[in-house]
Task: structure prediction
Amino acid sequence: MTPTTKHYLRFMAFLVINFGALGLGGYLMGEGPTGEWYRSLAQAPWTPPGWVFGAAWTSIMILFSIYVNKIYQRTSRKGLFWVIYAVQFVLNVSWNPLFFMYHKTGLSLFVIVSLLLLLILMAMHFSYTVRRYTWLIMPYIIWLFIATSLNAYITVFN
Result:
């Protein structure tokens, strides 16, 4: 197998895993944003329309897949990479049921802040390894700042 083929297959695997995380999170959130509980909450005035979430997450996961593939390709610290990546996966997936199914807005805020900090640390730690590719994680980080503010608003005002 050529290095190009390996790189492509690994990228495809990361796409499947990352979109699998979105699918699993969606499955675990029950009625999610269409449910009575969520619709009855005081929402932040800057809450985007529902379609924005799907478009944002699709773009984020494509860029994140390219980013983590580059890290994996270039880092000598693969063990550390897998630990960070796995924790990111668990935090990302677990937010949905905590927030939407169990209505644990405070705990979900803790989870999303933890995810945000983890991704900032990931970007900082691997920035030397992937240099210019670091910008690929920025939409994920920016989106998490927005999502954190939405979660915090709901936690404070409900």
User: Anything to note?
Assistant: The longest helix spans residues 105-130.
